[in-house]
Automatic annotation (TrEMBL):
Name the UniProt record assigns to this protein: ATP-binding cassette domain-containing protein
Keyword terms of this UniProt record: ATP-binding, Nucleotide-binding, Transport
Residue span(s) of domain ABC transporter: 2-238
A Pfam cross-reference name: ABC_tran
Alphabetized GO MF terms: ATP binding; ATP hydrolysis activity
PANTHER family (alphabetical): INTERMEMBRANE PHOSPHOLIPID TRANSPORT SYSTEM ATP-BINDING PROTEIN MLAF, PROTEIN TRIGALACTOSYLDIACYLGLYCEROL 3, CHLOROPLASTIC
Naturally occurring in which organism (per UniProt): Microvenator marinus
Coiled-coil stretches: none
Keyword Heme: no
Amino acid sequence: MIKVENITKLHMGEPVLQDVSLEIREGANLGLIGPGGAGKSLLVKIICGLVRPEKGRVTIDGTDVFSLNEIELADLRFKIGMLFQNYALFDFMNVGDNIAFPLRQAGKLTEEEIGAKVQDILTSVDLPTIAAKYPNELSGGMKKRVSFARAVIPQPPIVFYDDPTAGLDPVTSSKIFILLREMRDKRGVTSITISHDIEGIKDICDNFALLDKGKLVFLGDRSQIETSEIPIVRQFWDGFSDDELG
Ligand SMILES: Nc1ncnc2c1ncn2[C@@H]1O[C@H](COP(=O)(O)OP(=O)(O)OP(=O)(O)O)[C@@H](O)[C@H]1O
């Protein structure tokens, strides 16, 4: 269970997140939507302890994230896979070494076992032959799939996906959403997916939150979001542009 209580974060004295509270129970998948700059990525970084808020509390399975020391935080991050918006691949490592990185960090498997796992996951993301390539030789869609592979290879129980299909063509996007759905159905992960692709996240998430200018303006399940009368919720969910909303 992930519990976010009254998170407030300031940037140059102005609130960029304001009193945000939500809960994600084990195995649930939250879709986080809202305009650019609303604070979605920042909220996820706070939840996994990468950024400290001015106010509020985050607990993951009962552990208060901000009470942890650096070593305990590093342990917590082993439970959390993160697919960052900007890939965050190491340019100086080839694809195989990038994906193997979290397994080597954990230090529990032999090189032979790691090699087999890397090959398995590369096959499952439909890129079986690119282990020796470097990130700068890959297309955006390939980098996303490699980042996905690196985020999920340690089989974390929690995964955060930050705009996993941004800038991808529709075919590659649908492949990514299939991978996300498999994580939910086969591995039962608890997840937060930030996305501007409403059609894509409709199918992989069971709960939805909408952030606007740092405030949580909606939190609810699919039927609640479909019937919400909050104008910005309608605008985002239905994907129309209403000039009156500005
Ligand atoms: N570590 C930080 N501390 C304080 N403020 C931050 C920090 N990181 C980002 N911000 C600010 O938080 C605001 C929200 O940024 P964020 O990237 O979370 O938006 P977003 O909703 O994810 O946008 P997009 O959909 O465009 O990715 C921005 O004004 C940004 O400058």
